[in-house]
Amino acid sequence: MEQSGVGFGTSGARGLVSAMTDEVCYLYTRAFLQQLGGSGGAMDRVAVAGDLRPSTGRIMAAVVQAIRDAGMSPVHCGRIPSPALAWYGLRQGVPSVMVTGSHIPDDRNGIKFNRADGEISKADEQGIRGQRVEVPEGRFDPAGALTGAPAAIPPVEEGARRAYVGRYLGFFPPGCLEGLRVGVYEHSSVGRDLLGEVLAALGAEAVPLGRSETFVPVDTEAVRAEDVELALRWAREARLDAIVSTDGDADRPLLADERGHWLRGDVAGVLCAEYLGARVVVTPVSSNTVAERCGRFRRVLRTRIGSPYVVEAMLRAVDEGEDRVVGYEANGGFLTASPFEADGRRLEPLPTRDALVVVLALLHSSRLRAVPVSALADSLPPRFTASDRLKDFPTELSRQRLGALQTGNTARDHAAIERAFRGLFGPVAAVDATDGLRVNFASGEVAHLRPSGNAPELRCYNEADSEERAREMNRACLEILEGWRPPAGG
Which ranges in 70-148 belong to alpha helices (H)? Predict the structure, then answer.
């Protein structure tokens, strides 16, 4: 792992495609399967799926070879969303491996691992790191490529896709979206056809938009300027009630209102939790504080950034006797740890990121209240977040610069942080180092800086009482952070 540069991020192992050789992917998969056996797991089948990246097919072949060499049978679930694969694994009681880099550019890819009962934990990651894997002699050439004919990938098990579609058609009322005209921004999402299918089955008119046969790195947490412009144009020209989309592996939603304005994932998460009638909400420290301010939940629990931390906190809440427990992230991914019932229909728990539940919940809420999607967000207290990131920013440099500002919570430390922000946002009230550096200013505004767990990027989140102010703060912060780069040639 250390030699290849392929490591665990906030969700799964990620790296450059050039570094994710067949051998590296094979070793990760064998180590995962060995870890399951060492922790009391017993299985003879492993489900496998992937996204639409050019490198995914090759990596899936290496994963299948690893499964066969471990003495188990691969179940090929095809190119389906990550949550669809996880749902199949939960229902069948088998572990699963999803080949996806999510939203990051296609010169990178990744692998997500799920136990039979859900996502692997951070403790599982450490267990995987500690495995020693014996590789059959001659399995790889010196460059790390599989030698000979790779293990044959079995025919696609269509039941995985059907079960995922059935999960939502069995919970949302028949015809509940009738009368809505919904644009589906397809780009290169692995869930693009499935999303349109479910919307149409529930009565909506699904209008396909922006389909691409080359990979498009749509990031639901830092929406590209071109996607902002596309949504505004589509809403204006196509007379849409909403526009919906997902990231590459369809575990994170993206939803725009009738005006073409993309909703923040943490705002959509609050609205989805309210629709389900959640009592306990778990969300990372980076999410908008509207969750607390709206007063619609009995408890709001904050975690580090990454779905494993959200899952851990959700399951702990359930163990403590809480019910109607959900989680969501600022990127829009929504997780359920409890069953939810409505009019005799039941939604079973799916403790991994999901996009479809958010899309359907918000569209149905719009129909139930007889209001446009924009009015759903307007019903919440005015609290806005803007986020962006600096690309190609070395992770170690991010940690060094942020570490220098995380020395404590004294007046002297606050003064140093105020100087770092050039006094633009006023006095510091408190600092939270749960994940990165989250600075709460006396004005109530927030600046949160953290290195990405998936790529060499430095992310910045800003929160304020107006959208304009949040964006202004974000631009100012990014300008400051840009000055942290070493001089060219230095």
Answer: 82-92, 122-129
In a domain, 357, yes or no: yes
CATH number at residue 399: 3.30.310.50
Average pLDDT over residues 290-303: 95
Which of 4-18, 83-97, 169-183, 294-308 shows the lowest per-residue confidence on average (mean pLDDT)?
A: 4-18
Q: Where are the alpha helices (DSSP H) in 130-259?
A: 159-169, 192-201, 225-238
Listing DSSP states for 250-318 in one string gives SSSEEEE-TTSPBPPHHHHHHHHHHHHT-SEEEEETTS-THHHHT--SSEEEEE-SSHHHHHHHHHHHH
CB contact at 8 A, 450 and 305: yes
Look at residue 36 and give its three-state secondary structure: helix
Distances (CA, A) of 226 to 216, 217, 219, 230: 11, 12, 12, 6
What CATH code is carried by the domain that includes residue 65? 3.40.120.10
What is the C-alpha to C-alpha distance for residues 119 and 308, in angstroms, rounded to an integer?
A: 7
Q: Sort strands 437-441 and 345-347 into parallel, antiparallel or unpaired.
A: unpaired
Residue 42: pLDDT band with limits 50, 70, 90: low
CB contact at 8 A, 29 and 98:
no
1 occurs within a structural domain: no
Please determine, for residue 302, whether its predicted confidence score (pLDDT) is greater than 90.
Answer: yes
Instruction: Kindly state the percentage of the chain with pLDDT values over 70.
Output: 98
Count how many residues are written for the chain: 490
Mean pLDDT of 3-9: 87
Q: How far is CA 197 from the centre of its chain?
A: 22
Question: What residues act catalytically?
Answer: 102
pLDDT digits (tens, 9 = 90+) for 84-101: 999 999 999 999 999 999
Q: Which domain holds residue 335?
A: 170-378
Residue 41 has pLDDT above 70, yes or no: no
* pLDDT-based confidence at residue 151 (cuts at 50, 70, 90): confident
Write the single-letter amino acid at 53. R
Q: Which two tokens stand for residue 204?
A: 């909506």
Q: Let me know whether 32 and 88 are in one domain.
A: yes
Strand-by-strand arrangement of the 280-284 sheet: 299-303, 280-284, 325-328, 334-336, 350-354
487 in a domain, yes or no?
no
Q: Which amino acid is at 202?
A: L
CA 65, CA 42: separation in Å to the nearest integer?
19
| Average pLDDT across the chain, whole number | 93
The answer to whether residue 488 sits within a structural domain is: no
